[in-house]
Structures are given as structure tokens and as C-alpha cells.
Amino acid sequence: MTKVILDKHKRDWWKSAAFYEIYPKSFQDTTGSGTGDLKGILSRLDYLEKLGIDAIWLCPVCASPQVDNGYDISDFRDIDPIYGTMADMEVLIAEAGKRGIGILVDLTLNHSSSEHFWFREALKSRDNPYHDYYIWRDGDGSVPPNDMRAAFGGSAWTYVPELGQWYFHQFAVEQPDLNWDNPRLRRELYDMMNFWADKGVAGFRLDVIDQIAKDPDRKITANGPRLHEFFRELSREALSREGLVSVGEAWGADPERARLYSAPDGSELSMVFQFEHICLDQQSGGEKWDLAPLSLPRLKECFRRWQQELYGTGWNSLFFNNHDLPRIVSRWGDDGVYRTQSAKMLATMLHGMQGTPFIYQGEELGMTNIRLELEQYQDLESLNLFRERTAQGYDPQDVMRSIRARGRDNARTPMQWTAGENAGFTTGTPWLPVNENHRFLNAEAELADPDSVFHYYRRLIALRKQYDVFRDGRFTLLCPEDPQVFAYTRDTDAAHMLVVCNFSGAEAAFSLPEAFRHAETLIANYPGEPDTLRPWEARILYHE
Ligand code: GLC
Questions:
Q1: To test the ligand 1 pocket, which listed residue (57, 68, 325, 360) has its Cβ within 8 A of the most ligand atoms?
Q2: 499 - beta bridge partners?
């Protein structure tokens, strides 16, 4: 099958596209430093082209002290030396472009690093022109302005005695929040985005973008009062160039809000990246660390709602994984005996829906979680959690169980290229341990095996471009209460598709709707079609 190359200047090209997320630190090292780099990505473009993806969401590569692995940016217009140079970036954009692959730069418009020039100036005095680029409240240092907590632990306020003021940060102390109420700050950000557009990027992934319009005095961080005004301005000033795609990370979005964020007229963003489905296996009222089993009927209802409520009125991304989430095959599949089957089932279930799929590096191989000891974890979120929860009296074993199940380092272990030393990721010492299972789970082995998870993803991506029903079909959920089977149809006037997935390791009953009795199988993870579904079986049927 020849690859369909989408014209990135065509409006809405991203609706038929597949995106691939790269966490550069863990993708491919070319210097022996133990950390991935831009030249490493360049060296793997052929692999990505083979997979058939259309765009790369490149996690932050801008200059950064790396407190939060690059999500603390100290210069939005420069490349961090651990990753290479601006010249490397330009070559990457050009070479990816030749293969029909666009690059999305990941920007943290909500905050900067405390090492950013703006913040260092802001610290100098209250009347420094950059002071108001951040959010300050007066005080004597004894009690913070309120009890808001930062996402990575501790208070959301840090005191600067020299100024007699607290600054606001939703994440680490080293990630001060930017003050979007200041029009000069907004102008700087749009100019910076245009700088990247001039370099030829295909668009942007916008980090925690629904948190930019905050009102900390009223404890509002997500979906603040001026959010849509800011989105519309941002779209006008920095996105309206033909075809620039914007993916907005929005933890607080519901379908109603998402419709505005991703309105088809392009007045705000191209699509939302929301997390409702991926938060269903936590205790209600708890955090992601408070583990609970997944209820399949709830998961189905969640997808149904998003699929139907955004139909024709907005656009969603489709994902199970990213650099902040544990590996899906370990989470909702089976990372033992049925690893391959369950990885393919999960991909089928997701890619059959409407939206733009995001494949996170290694997901296309069925990569799994890793089991580490506390000292081996690198992520500040997990380390802070262990400190905070054990101080509060939690059992350390329970905290470790949560970290092993949900910690972000699960996703961040080096990409598994070969069965060789360090999985072919580096000739040095990897910054985070390589998963031992690279001996049998690696790209080289999967490329050589036509039945691998890799080739399954490749076929799914190609099918999505070949059949318009993936992009346009209306979604109908079948058997909503069934505790094992996730099945749905997608229909246009011209074509009909049935996606049926056994979301369990036991056999499951499913009676095929009459209309699909003689339908064509587009893809399946088992041969033959017996009456019952085998463990983790998945199949897409099609008729016109
Ligand atoms: C987003 C990123 C995450 C980061 C946080 C703060 O959620 O995906 O990795 O730590 O924002 O920038």
C-alpha cells in the first residue's frame, strides 16, 4: 500500500492524520550522553515514515534547566544543548517535511522556567517592566495568599523576601505561572509562535492551555473567565496561517467547553486533548494515585458521550498514552501472555473512533510499564509524592504501588530499538533504566514480524486514510452494559463500519448484527471468525 501524504496546507488535513508523540529525552541518543537528541530523531525518520504517521508532537526541546524535563522553558527561541542546536532543529523540520511529516512544537504558554530572562528581571524589583509578566501577591512571608496546592506538591505560592511578595505557580516552584492579563506578555508569546511558524513547523501542542486564564484569588485555574477571549486572540495572532494545527491539552474540558475550544470555524484551537476516559480508574474524589478498577460500561459511556456530543461541532484527539501516563497495555490490557493481542485490541478500539489518534513512542510496539525502586525514579512528581504521602502516614508499600502503576517514568523509559545493549538507545548510561523486556520487545524484531503490534498500527493508520467513514461516520454504541465487549458502529450514508473488541482475557459472547453478516474484515488481531470472541480479540468489519 503506498502512503497517502496529506497536504499540510489543506484546511483540516489533521482530521485524517495520525500523530506520533516523541519524548526526545528517551527516543534516540547519538552522542553517548545517555539522553536522546535531535539527531537521534533525524536518524529514525525512516522508521516513522514506515509507520505512516503524518505529524510529530515533539515534547519540549527548548532551552531549559530540565527540572520538569523541558516543561520549564528558559528560552522559547533556542534549543537546549542536551538536544543539539537550532541548526539540527531546522534540518529535522526540513527532513521530516520531505517525508510528509509535520513537526508540532510543544509550548508551555502557561508558565516559564524561573531561569527565564523575564522571571530573572521580574525578581529585580516591583517596577521592573517584566514584573507583571508573572502573578504576585503582597505578604510578609508568614502565610501564603491562600491554600492552593501546586500539582507537584507543596503550596502554589512561593515567597520572595526581597520583594515582599509571593508568586503563583501551578506546577513546580521553578515553573512560575505567566500573567495572561498582561497584553505585552501575550504579544511576546504570539511573536515567539510566529518565529516557530517561520521555521516551518506544522503547528503547536499547547501545554495545559486551559489553565492560562486563571484567577488565583477565586482559586480558579482551569477554564478561567477570559479563556475564550485569549484563545480567539491566539488563533488570530499566531495560528491563522493556513493549516497551522493546534492541540490544546485541557484537563478540565467537558464536551460543552471542548466544542468551543475546537469549533470547526477554527476561531479557537484545532482540537482538544482531554483526559476524562483516562481518569476513570481512580477512586472518586481521589487523585490518580488512588487506584480503582476500571468499569468497562463507564468507559464506554464516556467515549459515547464525547463521540456523539462533538460530532460535527468540535474535534477530539484519541489517545491512551503520553509521556505523563502509564503504558496502556500494562494498565488496561495484559502485559504478559496476551500482550500482543491486547495491545492490538486497544489500538483497534481507539482508532476506530472519530478524532486524531496520537501514538506515544513505543506504544506501536506494545511497550510496557517498568518496575523500579524508589532511588531509580527520576520524575519529581513521583519523588514528591513519596515524600508527601509517607509524611502524612501512608504505608510506603502502598505509595510505591501507586507510583509503579501510575508514575510518569513508566512512559519515559528509553525507546526499545533492538535486543542489544541498552536496546540500541544509547552507547552510554541511559538517564532512566531500559526495560529488560527489550530482549524480545523491540522495533527491530517487530519490523521483521508481519504479525507484530507495529505492523498492526501501520495498517490501522493506513486504513484511516483509505476509508472516509473513520473520519466522518456517526458513532453508535452497542451493548452499553456488557462488561466484556466494547462494540460500536460508524455510519455515513455511503459506508458502514463495525468495531468489536473483547476488552477482557476471557472468551466473550457477541452476536453479529445482521447487516454485518457478510461484511468485509478490514483488520483483525486473530485469524478466522468463530462464534465467540477470543481473549482480547478485535475486529473491524465494513460494508457499503
Ligand atoms: C503538562 C505536561 C507535563 C508537565 C506539565 C507542566 O501536563 O504534559 O509533562 O509536567 O504540563 O508543564
A1: 68
A2: 488, 540
Strands 520-524 and 496-502 come out as unpaired
| Pocket residue to mutate for ligand 1, from 71, 111, 177, most atoms within 8 A of Cβ | 71
Helix boundaries (H) for 29-130 = 38-43, 45-51, 86-98, 117-122
The CA–CA distances, whole Å, from 57 to 18, 52, 66 equal 11, 15, 19
Helix (H) or strand (E) holding 360: strand 356-360
Instruction: Report how far apart, in Å, the C-alpha atoms of 311 and of each of 223, 249, 493, 542 are.
Output: 22, 19, 15, 21
For residue 502, list its beta bridge partners: 485
- Cβ(80) – ligand 1 distance below 6 Å: no
275 lines ligand 1 (CB under 6 A): no
Give the tens place of pLDDT for each residue, 282-324.
999 999 999 999 999 999 999 999 999 999 999 999 999 999 9
C-alpha cell at 172: 513546580
Provide mean pLDDT across the span 495-502.
Answer: 98
The model's confidence at residue 3, banded by pLDDT at 50, 70 and 90, is: low
- Assess whether 249 carries a catalytic annotation: yes
